Structure formats: structure tokens, C-alpha cells
């Protein structure tokens, strides 16, 4: 049986550990789900950017999940949605991987098999002035997969120092829309973003702490990524994601 070097997984996940490490690795994963009219997955396709054993593990787990079906005129319809997961791989002594994962959300998928949003830069002027903010960004993912800003609301700090960079960020986002009964649909998304000088180091500390827990099952309790999108009106609501 062919084994997958943990180095390949780390490259895929964007991590920097050396080959041969036995430390758990936390990383994002995505999958496209074809659902029948009862919300039962009929086909699951994990991102092609993930290593083969990780894709197989993701697909096997997601096939066990169940969703509320999309309703059109009171009738349940089949469709397609996309899920985001927090995953964890533990290298084994035989060269294989033990993979755990947890549901993070569903809605439109990232285009080009991406597993995360594009990098959000910190505006140089805001950095020089020491400006920080937490902002709820509401966007509409159209039937063409393009994202447009609907609103920005600061929960801490001010929008004005970050408005231009957020608009430019949304403009480069590309999605694969959800489908209901063979037709693409538009979906509203909420993306909470944080501009903070302490955010990156704090996140690394959380990931390091989670990776040390037994079998990395802390992936199930990992704090939500500040830029994890939340679908506000996806017709497919998860029922069982254990």
C-alpha cells in the first residue's frame, strides 16, 4: 500500500514542520456534496488539493452526514452544497495518517478547489497608525460565483480605515454557487474579519494547544477562525454532522 509522506500534507496545508515529524497537523478542508431530495449525500468530492488519504477520509465522513433538503413550493428538492471542515492529521509509525475532522459550515464552495479564502492584507496606513478593528462583512455570492459587498459593520474599531482593502478583497473572491434542482442559486454570507496585531500569534498558540490534545480531537472544539464565512440563507441545513 502506498503511504503519503506527511511532508506532502504539510505543503498542502501551508504548514512548515519538517518531514518525519509525528506532531499532529491542523488544516482546513472542503468538499462538494450532491444531496438527494431527503438531504442524504449521494456523492462527495473533497478538494483535489488535499492528499489522497485525506480526501478519502473526508469523503467517507461526509457521506455519513444528513442535511435538511431544500424546499421549493413546499416540495423537497435535491441539490448541491459545499462544506468547510477543520481537519487534523496524525502521522503514524507505518507512514500512514490518522485523520479527524469537524464541520465548520456549508454554503457556496471556493472556486479552483481552494480550501480557504484569499489572504486579507493589513492596510499599510492602518498598520502605521496602529488602527485595529473587528468587522462583520456581509456579501452576496451570485449565481455567477462572484461576490459583492452588501454591508460592513464594525463591532470594534472603525470601518473607514479598512473599507478599501475589504472591497478589493471581496472583488477577487470566486465561488462555486450552491444548486437546487439543477439550478444555481445566490447565497448571502457573513464573514467576520479581525484586523489585530495580536491575532496571528494568538491563533498559532490556539492551534499548538489543540494539536497537543489526545488524537487531535480538539479539532472538534477549535475556536472559529475569524474569517470563516457563515451562510445566512443556504437552503441546506445540517442535521447530523457527527
Order of helices and strands: HEEHEEEEEEHEEHEEEEHEE
The pLDDT mean sits at 82
Largest sheet: 6 strands, antiparallel
| CATH topology descriptor | TolA/TonB C-terminal domain
Low-confidence segments, given as residue ranges, are: 1-19
- The portion of residues forming beta strands comes to 35-45%
Taken from the alpha-carbon principal axes, the silhouette is: flat
Furnish the topology, listing elements before pairings.
Blueprint: H1 6-13, E1 25-35, E2 41-46, H2 52-62, E3 66-68, E4 70-72, E5 75-77, E6 79-91, E7 97-107, E8 109-110, H3 124-129, E9 133-141, E10 147-156, H4 163-171, E11 175-176, E12 179-180, E13 183-184, E14 187-195, H5 199-211, E15 230-231, E16 237-240
Antiparallel strand pairs: 1-2, 1-6, 3-16, 4-5, 6-7, 6-12, 8-11, 9-10, 9-14, 12-13, 14-15
Description:
The chain is an alpha+beta fold and 242 residues long. 19% of the residues lie in helices and 38% in strands. Strands 1, 2, 6, 7, 12 and 13 form a six-stranded antiparallel beta sheet that branches. Strands 10-9-14-15 form a four-stranded antiparallel beta sheet, covered by helices on one side. A hairpin with a 5-residue loop joins strand 1 and strand 2. It is flat, with a radius of gyration of 19 Å. The two termini are 29 Å apart.
Amino acid at each position: 500500500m502506498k503511504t503519503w509522506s506527511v511532508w506532502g500534507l504539510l505543503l498542502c496545508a501551508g504548514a512548515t514542520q519538517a518531514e518525519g515529524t509525528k506532531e499532529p497537523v491542523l488544516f482546513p478542508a472542503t468538499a462538494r456534496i450532491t444531496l438527494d431530495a431527503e438531504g442524504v449525500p449521494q456523492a462527495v468530492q473533497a478538494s483535489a488539493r488535499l492528499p489522497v488519504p485525506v480526501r478519502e477520509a473526508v469523503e467517507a465522513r461526509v457521506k455519513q452526514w444528513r442535511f435538511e433538503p431544500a424546499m421549493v413550493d413546499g416540495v423537497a428538492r435535491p441539490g448541491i452544497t459545499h462544506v468547510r471542515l477543520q481537519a487534523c492529521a496524525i502521522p503514524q509509525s507505518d507512514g500512514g495518517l490518522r485523520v479527524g475532522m469537524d464541520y465548520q459550515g456549508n454554503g457556496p464552495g471556493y472556486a479552483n478547489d481552494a480550501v480557504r479564502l484569499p489572504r486579507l492584507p493589513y492596510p499599510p496606513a492602518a498598520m502605521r497608525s496602529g488602527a485595529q478593528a473587528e468587522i462583520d462583512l456581509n456579501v452576496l455570492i451570485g449565481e455567477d460565483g462572484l461576490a459583492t459587498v452588501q454591508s460592513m459593520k464594525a463591532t470594534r474599531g472603525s470601518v473607514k480605515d479598512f473599507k478599501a482593502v475589504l472591497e478589493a478583497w471581496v472583488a477577487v473572491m470566486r465561488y462555486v454557487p450552491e444548486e437546487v434542482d439543477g439550478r444555481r442559486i445566490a447565497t448571502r454570507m457573513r464573514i467576520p474579519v479581525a484586523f489585530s496585531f495580536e491575532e496571528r500569534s494568538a491563533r498559532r498558540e490556539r492551534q499548538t494547544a489543540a494539536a497537543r490534545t489526545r488524537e487531535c480531537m480538539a479539532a472538534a472544539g477549535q475556536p472559529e477562525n475569524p474569517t470563516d464565512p457563515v451562510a445566512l440563507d443556504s437552503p441546506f441545513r445540517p442535521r447530523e454532522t457527527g
